[in-house]
Automatic annotation (TrEMBL):
This is Thioesterase. Transmembrane segments: none annotated. Residues 16-120 form the Fluoroacetyl-CoA-specific thioesterase-like domain. It comes from Deinococcus aerolatus. SUPFAM superfamilies: Thioesterase/thiol ester dehydrase-isomerase (SSF54637). Pfam families: FlK.
Amino acid sequence: MRPIPADFTQTLTVTVTDEMTVDFGELGAVHPVYATYWMAKHFEEAGRKIILPFLEDGEGGIGSQVEVIHTGPALPGMTVTVTATLTAQEGRRVHAGMRAVTELGDEIGHGSTTQFVLPQTRIDANFETLRARWAAHTRDNS
């Protein structure tokens, strides 16, 4: 991984959809506004945009931490812009600060993400190991 410039920033802009509102499945719909778990997804996606231009051939990133402090609502149809800013790069660990703002200029959330940059072959091998364990588990419990 190449060094990322201090305060490097990327943005992700999304339009809130009905699918992105709070619905807990078994518990049903709760609030007709942008859900915290969707904000977490968008924080991770914006954080990934921080590392992509600096990955070297054969490298991949994997998320390890997301912090979301959800401070306000956004309605379906509203645009939310998530701004990710590099806060630290410690070897292969990349930390980014997050801020979510609606098209009205209201901050509706902030937080952070952490990603690890590893050889993609190592990431893939870890997933294959898990798949093999899962296959053995489901076979033994059938």
